[in-house]
Design a protein that fits this description.
By secondary structure, this protein is mostly helical. About 55% of the residues lie in helices and about 5% in strands. The longest helix has 19 residues, at about 60-75.
């Protein structure tokens, strides 16, 4: 619903975010805080929600899903949902915080494990922390991008102008 109804203004904000993560420009992208009761969450909680919601997700795919969740959230709500910055790594945008957290339990192509019986608890806990509009947007992002393979998501990020600019001169 949210993704299909993107306006030109929202798409511009999405581009502003994409430009910001590779340090080109976009100082106005996060200028309104506290709007509509929108809440920030810890990126690890967001990542755990994604894994609980989708099931088997490898580390590479999780990084891209968190990235797109942040990008769409910023575009729609004028506010980040997480504090992390993304870096332009070889396989696409990466949150170093998430990388450091999940690296001991899952390499790039390893699925992120989730404890048996914890899935419903993680989902409920996360839903209690954010506004319904935020949850709707995140679930739309997961519906649109969650069915894609990690390789497909990597290719998407590599097609975007900010990625090409950030990686210019690198292999």
């Amino acid at each position: 619903m949210y993704i299909k109804k993107a306006t030109k203004r929202q798409l511009k904000k999405l581009l502003d975010f994409l430009l910001r993560w590779c340090d080109i420009v976009a100082p106005e992208a996060s200028n309104s805080r506290g709007k509509m009761g929108i809440q920030m969450v810890d990126s690890i909680e967001l990542a755990e929600y994604i894994v609980a919601k989708l099931g088997l997700v490898n580390h590479l795919k999780l990084q891209k899903l968190v990235y797109y969740a942040e990008a769409y959230h910023l575009a729609y709500f004028d506010k980040s949902i997480i504090e992390d910055n993304f870096e332009a790594w070889l396989h696409g945008p990466v949150s170093r915080k998430l990388w450091n957290h999940f690296k001991p339990i899952a390499n790039v192509y390893d699925n992120i494990p989730i404890e048996k019986g914890k899935r419903a608890e993680i989902i409920k806990s996360f839903k209690d922390k954010i506004a319904p509009d935020q949850l709707g947007l995140l679930d739309d992002v997961l519906s649109a991008y969650g069915k894609l393979r990690s390789y497909d998501l990597e290719c998407l990020t590599h097609e975007e102008e900010p990625w090409r600019f950030a990686r210019k001169g690198y292999s």
